[in-house]
Amino acid sequence: MTSSTPPSEPAPPPQPNHADLPRQFPGRDAMVRELTARFPQASGGASPIRGGSKPALAALEAVDPVRYAASRNHLDGAVSGLSPYIRHGVLSLAQVRDVVWQRMARGPGLVSEKLLQELAWRDYWQRLWIRLGDGVWENLEPLKTGQPEAAYAQELPDDISEGHTSLACIDAFARELSDTGWLHNHARMWLAAYVVHWRRVRWQAGARWFLCHLLDGDPSSNNLSWQWVASSFSSKPYLFNRANLEHFGAGRHCPCCPAAAACPFESSYEALQARLFSAPQGGERASGGQAKGEAV
User: Fold this and answer.
1) What's the rounded Cα separation, in Å, for the pair 203 and 156?
2) Fewest beta carbons less than 10 Å away: which of 59, 92, 205, 248?
3) Residues 155 and 270 in one domain
4) What is the pTM of this model?
5) Tens-of-pLDDT digits for all 296 residues of the chain?
């Protein structure tokens, strides 16, 4: 190998790239205008989630492990909002763990340990990603739905990604995903179950869609949570019904849904299993269960 620069001479300094984004802005509005001009193909507006260490530390200071454990399954529950900051390294898992542990020690015992468990699951997913690499995009186990792989579409239908299914809950989740870059973990599960089980779309298509928008998305917790819902990394597929959604959804979707009279989720778990799957599933998935280690 040869070089046009003699070894005894220092390399010339790099020339400035005038196409680089500015590093300083007079305010958030100016930054949003700059990004909008540079990326006109991007959909939705700027996420309301603020980046940086100050918002991250404020969110960490507000964490309440006891309230989290008691209400995390509810859309209006006391979730931490820490996942985007953990994902981008603004906060470390160890940093969050230490704060949670200190507050657990002052709280009412193990009732508050759930947030610590979720951090452990996130760490587990990361370790699996290191081990599996791109294998997280392949089924880790056969599906337990009784349906062949060929029964599932390769691409996500536009009416789902654009929020035009006429199902108030599904459309609201799709819009929130696009507009904010974040979804409550229970909403992620409901949306994933709808995509895979009701619409028969491969989980990989849904996982790609989520990664296009989620500020906390990475292929480990995202893909393995989709596989948990689909049943390629769990003992059975995850399902929900209307009663489950109404109970944990703060009553915000069903009353105004144009499809309420013919709701596809209005049924018992046994009836939904018989309708959607071609093999016995061994009982219903526990209402309000969460895939592990996704949004916290």
Assistant:
1) 9
2) 92
3) yes
4) 0.86
5) 434 444 445 555 544 444 788 888 898 889 888 888 888 887 667 889 999 999 999 999 999 998 999 999 999 999 999 999 999 999 999 999 999 998 886 655 556 789 999 999 999 999 999 999 999 999 999 999 999 999 999 999 999 999 999 999 999 999 999 999 999 999 999 999 999 999 999 999 999 999 999 999 999 999 999 999 999 999 999 999 999 999 999 888 999 999 999 999 999 999 999 999 986 554 444 334 555 666 77
**Is residue 75 in a domain?**
yes
- What CATH number is associated with residue 70? 1.25.40.80
Lookup: tokens for 63? 């964490």
Place of tokens 């603004």: 90
Tokens for 43, please give them: 């959909």
Distance CA 110, CA 108 (A): 7
Here the tokens at position 141 are: 């186990």
Same domain, 182 and 249: yes
Amino acid at 69: A
Instruction: For residue 27, tell me if it sits in a domain.
Output: no
User: For residues 217, 223, 224 and 228, what is the CA-based torsion angle, rounded to 10 degrees?
Assistant: 110
Structure tokens at 199: 């619409």
Q: Which of 132, 151, 170 is the last residue of a domain?
A: 132
Let me know if residue 210 belongs to a domain: yes
Q: Are residues 258 and 143 in the same domain?
A: yes
Report in angstroms the alpha-carbon separations of 287 from 197, 246, 255. 17, 11, 21
